[in-house]
Design brief:
By secondary structure, this protein is mainly beta. It has 1 helix and 44 strands. The strands form 8 sheets. It has a 17-stranded parallel β-sheet that branches. It has a 7-stranded antiparallel β-sheet with strand order 6-5-8-3-10-9-14, with no helix packed on it. Strands 26-31-36-39-42 form a 5-stranded parallel β-sheet, with no helix packed on it. The protein is globular and about 75 Å long.
């Protein structure tokens, strides 16, 4: 939301969240893994796979605990034999486990039980008899995790990337909550399911066994070989040393937390590009069935919860508070902090809940606050944004009512969330995601794979001023600090949608669907290190998303300031060109 001056928030100095050590956690979206130095007890089966035994996933244990079949679709450049099935195991991934090999038409070719496993690391089960596979044909190797906690590195296969080793190439990670061959895709994830393979030039001889490989601490980083891709990844450039030169400081703005997405629907239940409809990467957009607290809606793969009333404090002055499966009837204001800037070390956790008020931090030393699988439904019109403003991280949140906006002044991230249905009032200028400046040079805001709408008013105050309305679905304005270190990636941006129930609705729609921050006349007019990539723009009633167009200027002509605009398209596939003034 672009705030009018009377609603300007406190611009106190914020030494907040992102320490240099935390920036290092972000590392390398795509087919990246950590190498661990562990002696490997070889299985009896000959051959090698896509991942070597010294490769460790970044996210070794997804928090999900539902039973799920996980797999990898792969292809070989040469004819050969599959001699064993392998997968990477976390400590929490309890068995029994059974590996399977499937043909491209869904027929089960063979299966094998993992009879002997180590607590964690790569597990290998040798087949009773090698299976012949044909070059150029795709196969699926899978295993069932009966209690979840599986490896899940999101975006490993983004932009059509393949992970290749020798003649084998992994095409995509797949899953299913049912029986049969897994075929569903979520966030281009890799689940680290593999085979051992030898070409037909070798003679397969196998003594069936199952062999675990325990993992020790990682010692260095490397990446598997992937085929070249012209598409950009979400990995930002490395941090550079701040200086007085015009070149802006480059700060990583992608968070790779251990709290990974587990709210995938078993199948998309909405129309294409609608909430919970199919996105363009093989998954589903956020919406009512995969955000907010799980309530057993059709297609929601999350276990439903029963809510009870929250009786704890709503002004939280001590860290360690966890609000789980609760109805909170009022604002949550956090006035405690633990000195961390990582969502892996939260001060306050809110999950599987309904909050009938805002969630707010307003000082440099507060948080982190982690909000997952929660509905934020604010009655009336609050003074504060629905969720903000410092050191806040959200996943799978359904935010609506009041201002709606998830707003950041330093160190935030929003993933897989649905922001919609604001309440029109005052002279407020609304956004679904936004801010009025990043207060610290190391601060950032990552907005990734969300469904954002602004102007689909759920209601209005009859006294709403003539200037009240939506500025942009995603909007940043340099009122109190520079606009910098913003990542806007893989979001659906709904655009102008007329609601006849709101007076003068057409004039209250987003002027632009994105305002990335270039705004002459503001105290801080020039954004830097703003990356707008892979977003899908709705056409809206105007045919161009916003009333005036899809986006305002990213920067002045010839002054890129480290900003990136790439692969942004309308929902019909037409490109949205880079905007420069």
């Amino acid at each position: 939301m672009e705030f009018s001056p009377r609603r300007a928030f406190d611009s106190r100095s914020r030494s907040r969240r992102l320490s240099a050590s935390f920036v290092c956690v972000l590392a390398l979206i795509g087919a990246v893994a950590l190498v661990i130095s562990t002696p490997v007890r070889a299985s009896a089966a000959p051959g090698s796979g896509i991942w070597s035994d010294d490769v460790q996933p970044r996210a070794a244990a997804d928090p999900e605990t539902s039973a799920v079949e996980l797999g990898t679709v792969f292809v070989s450049e040469v004819d050969g034999w599959v001699t064993a099935i392998r997968y990477y195991k976390s400590v929490g991934n309890r068995g029994p486990h059974v590996g399977k090999l499937w043909s491209s038409d869904g027929q089960l070719i063979t299966s094998v039980a993992f009879k002997v496993e180590s607590p964690s690391g790569w597990q290998t089960a040798d087949l009773a008899a090698p299976v012949r596979i044909t070059k150029g044909k795709s196969y699926t190797v899978s295993y069932r995790a009966p209690y979840g906690r599986y490896a899940d590195d999101e975006w490993a296969f983004s932009s059509g990337r393949r992970i290749k080793s020798g003649p084998l190439a992994a095409i995509r990670g797949v899953y299913t909550y049912g029986s049969g061959r897994p075929t569903l895709v979520w966030h281009d994830s890799s689940y680290y399911v593999d085979v051992k393979f030898i070409s037909t030039n070798s003679t397969p001889t196998v003594t069936p066994t199952t062999t675990p490989t325990s993992a020790s601490a990682p010692t260095s980083a490397t990446s598997t070989t992937t085929s070249p891709s012209a598409m950009p990844t979400t990995t930002p450039p490395p941090t550079t040393t701040p200086s007085s030169s015009p070149t802006p400081t480059q700060v990583s703005t992608t968070v790779v937390p251990s709290v990974t997405s587990s709210g995938r629907p078993a199948a998309c239940v909405g129309s294409v590009n609608a909430p919970v409809g199919a996105d363009v990467w093989g998954g589903c957009w956020p919406g009512p069935h995969n955000t907010g607290y799980p309530r057993g809606l059709s297609g929601d793969a999350r276990a439903s919860v029963t809510l009870t009333s929250y009786t704890g404090p709503t002004t939280i002055s001590k860290c360690g508070v966890v609000i789980d499966s609760k109805i909170v009837s009022g604002d949550i204001v956090v006035t405690a902090g633990n000195g961390s800037h990582s969502p892996d070390a939260p001060c306050v956790t809110i999950k599987n809940s309904l909050v009938k008020g805002v969630i707010h931090t307003d000082a440099a030393s507060y948080g982190p606050v982690v909000v997952t699988d929660t509905e934020v439904a604010v009655p009336g019109l609050s003074w504060w944004e629905n969720i903000g403003r410092y050191n806040v991280f959200v996943w799978r949140v359904n935010s609506h009512g009041s201002e709606g906006v998830i707003k950041c002044a330093d160190y935030c991230a929003a993933y897989d969330s649905w922001v919609h249905g604001m309440y029109l009032g005052g002279q407020y200028h609304y956004n679904a995601f936004g801010g009025n400046g990043m207060e610290s040079a190391g601060g950032y805001f990552t907005v990734e794979h969300n469904w954002a709408s602004c102007g689909d008013w759920a209601g209005s105050d009859p006294r709403a001023g003539s200037d009240a309305g939506c500025s942009a679905d995603i909007g940043f304005y340099g009122d109190f600090a520079p606009i910098r270190n913003i990542t806007i990636n893989k979001n659906y941006i709904a655009g102008a949608r007329i609601d006849s129930g709101v007076p003068a609705a057409e004039s209250r729609q987003p002027g632009y669907c994105i305002n990335p921050g270039y705004y002459p006349g503001k105290p801080y007019p020039d954004p830097s290190n703003v990356k707008v990539t892979n977003n899908v723009f709705g056409r809206g009633y105007s045919g161009k998303c916003g009333v005036y167009g899809p986006t305002n200027s990213l920067n002045a002509a010839g002054k890129p300031n480290g900003n990136v605009w790439d692969n942004n398209k309308y929902e019909d596939g037409a490109m949205v060109d880079r905007p420069e003034e």
